Every structure is written in structure tokens, then in C-alpha cells.
Amino acid sequence: MGVGKQAEQILSKVPEVKDVFDVGGFSFGGSSPNSGIMFVTLKDFADRPGEEHSAKAVVRRLFGGLSQITGAMVIPFLPPSINGLGTFGGFAYELQDQTGGPIEGLAAAAQQLIGQGYATPGLTGLFTQFTANDPQLIVTIDREQTKSLGMSMSDITNTMQVLLGSSYVNDFDFNSRSYRVYVQADKQFRSVPDDIKRYSVRTSAGQMMPLSNVVQVREGTAPKTITHYNMFRSASINGSAAPGYSSGQAIQIMQQLSDRVLPQGMTYSWSGLSLEEIKAGRQSVLIFALGLLLVYLTLAGQYESLTLPFIILLSVPLAILGALLAQWRRGLIDDVYCQIGLVMLIGLSAKNGILVVQFAEELRGRGLSIVDAAVEAARIRLRPILMTSLAFILGVMPLVVASGAGREARHSVGTAVAGGMIASTFLNLAFIPVLYVVVKSIGRRHTKADSQP
Does one domain contain both 1 and 119? Predict the structure, then answer.
């Protein structure tokens, strides 16, 4: 039974699978007679309730079933998260050979790295399409014998090209349609390797000479394709993060594994979505810092003070702590959606501090002491803070309890923002007045010390 039929039988037993489309002789690495690709359509998301029926869970289950096929290496994978950035879902790792040694060394290093990766927590679904032992037919032409028989090397190669492959001749029109004409040997004359020896080529003397006089055919192994990355021979390794790990953690684990396992002369790079994720990850700290700076400069201009904005911004760590605790309690990871929520919390948590500090400054202008102004501001502003915060928290609850396709992203951003706002609302009601008293008292002492002669 063919490999495609075996894979189709295994897929037909998966209850989540709706349709299967099989294409032989084609893969994302190019066309070849010993490759193929299958496109599997799952049932509607509403018909697959529960995490155990998700696309990731289906792929994890298929790894065991498809690995039982002995005639080929059959690997299930998810499509990339963003179309156009890579071919497979998960991370894209490029193993590079800088030694220029035998190609078998690159294949051995790739298989060793994959084997160690499966034994490392945090990684799953590692595979590579690169192999150095693909079966091939090696045709050797005896040049001296060809010359002595009056045969041309170009005639020999062109004959094999036309009869084994094909050659375009022209187009012709029939019944208002245009058809392309190709010349090729019939299938019974190109089914086995020995058919090559049955072909004939015309010599310079006009005689037809069989290729068996000058051609030898033998079996061998070699890489189907040799790819290069950054000018070095490379092997692409794809994989994904294990359940409970983020893609960023999987990349870090893969980097640590590479530093420990790769032999001398082998290095690695990242490509596709993984490369973009690494570049964007380096900017997250900068974006967060710029957000804090923008809020600080805005508050400094509003209050015409350099110390009061610090009181308000000190409420941000409490909000971030609440967001991370909420993520941890739900078993979520610190992904890009969570980081978006953290940036939002800079302004949302500062809002509560502004309500207290601004009113405390107004009370100070009426003659109240620092402590009395802080306590009275917290008491009077309690209701507005609770009303606005609870209204916002209730507004993001649909994200926290979202269902359906894409719920992971909604859960992450909703949980981070809701958890941060809950912590910011209740903790800052106690911390902001205390911070106001501490900072204003320190500033008052410095003012008195500077005014003394």
C-alpha cells in the first residue's frame, strides 16, 4: 500500500478531520518523485469543543500514528501563524555548516540535535526535511567510448532528457482551444532503470547506437536538495513549544541546547516568524520604557512638578504584579498579548493615582496638612475610582471568558488587564496616599533645608 494511502487511513480515523487533499510528487521544498504533501481540513471550531480537540492537540496525537509508517517520514504540522512568514507553524531554526566538510556531517548534526531536543522539556514536534541519503540513480557516461564510437555527449544527454523527462515542441489549436505538445517516451519504456540502455543515439556515421555501449546505471544516495543560509550549507529544523511553554521560551531552550550539543564548526540562525519574534522581543523593553516616559512627561507638564509624577507612576508595579499573578493563576504565559496588556496598564493604573494626587493637591491649597489631604482625597475619591475601575473590569470580562477560535489571545490580554486593574484599584487606594505623604514630606524637608541660611 502506498504511503499516501496509509496516511489517509490514519487520518480518516481522527474524529476531528473533515477532508484530506493529497498531492504526490510535491512538497514545500520543491518537486521530487519521493515526496508528497497532504492538506487536512478540520471540522468547524464549534464542532470541536474542548482543548483536547484543538488543532495543536490533533497534531500531537498524529505524531504517534504517522510515525508508524515505515515507508516514509510522515510529519504533521500546523500552518504558520502569519501567512508569508515561513512554511510551518512553530519556530524555524537554520543549522549551518561552516566547515565545508562532507554533507553527511550536517545531516548527522541535525539528527543529533533533534534527538536531544525531544529529550529536553519545553520542545516538541522537531523535524527536518533535510536528508543526505535520498535514493538516486547515477548515470555514468564513458567519454572515451563515446568519442571512439562517433557519438556526441550532447546527443546522449538530450536523448535521456527527452525520453525520460519531456521536451516542449509547440502549441496547436483544436476546437477553439490551445494545447501544448510534449515529446516523451511512453511509460512502459521508462519504468525501470535498465530502460535507459535501450535508447539509441545516431552516430556521426549515421548509425543508431544503443546507449548500453556507453552508459552505466547504478544506484546511490545523495541529498535531494542542498540549501544555503547566509552563504553556508544549511538544514532547516522546525519545531514548536511544548504545552505550558511560550514560543520565546522554546527559542531560548533551543539556543541553550545548540550551544551544548552542536559540534565545532556548526552554528545556527533563525528565520521566518522566529526571526521576527526575536527582533520584536528586543523592542518590548524599549516600548515599555517609552510608555513610562511619555506618561511621566505628560504628568510633569500637567502638575508642573518633577516629584508628583513619581507618586503616580509608583502604582504601575502593583498593576503589573497583579497582571502577572492573574496570568500565572490561569496557567497562561507571558506572550505578546500579555505584553500589550502591560503597556495598557501604564495608563490605566496611573488614572487611579491621578484622581487621588490631584485632589490631594487641591486640598493642600486649601490649607490642609499633608496627611489630612492624603486621607481626605482617598476617602472622597474612593467612589469614583471604584466606579470607573469596576466598569472597565466588567467591560473586559468577555475577553477573560471568551470562547471560540482565537480565544487564547483574548484570554491573555483580558486576564492581564483585568488582573492588573483589580490589583491596582484596591492596593493603590492604600499605597498612593502613603506614597504621597512620604514623597511630599521628603520634599518639604529638602525645601526647609535649602531655605535655611
Answer: no
pLDDT at 451: 47
Domain that holds residue 59: 1-76
| CATH number, residue 177 | 3.30.2090.10
Read off the pLDDT of each residue in 138-142 and give the average, rounded to a whole number: 88
In what helix (H) or strand (E) does residue 285 lie, and over which residues does it extend? helix 272-303
The residue type at 380:
I
Number of domains composing the chain: 4
CATH number at residue 372: 1.20.1640.10
- What percent of the chain stands above pLDDT 90? 1
List the grid coordinates of 137. Answer: 540513480
Integer Cα distance of 349 and 226 in angstroms: 54
- Give the pLDDT score at 29: 66
Is residue 299 located within the same domain as residue 401?
yes
Cβ of 452: how many Cβ atoms within 10 Å?
5
Report DSSP state, residue 52. Answer: G
Quickly count helices (H) and strands (E) in the chain: 13, 13
Please indicate, yes or no, whether residues 119 and 154 belong to a single structural domain of this protein: no
232 and 217 inside one domain? no
Do 70 and 84 fall within a single domain? no
Quote the Cα angle for 418-401-346, to 5°.
Answer: 20
C-alpha angle 290/423/425, rounded to 5°?
Answer: 90
**Assigned C-alpha cell, 40:** 487536512
Distance CA 410, CA 414 (A): 6
Q: What is the mean pLDDT of the segment spanning 221-247? A: 84
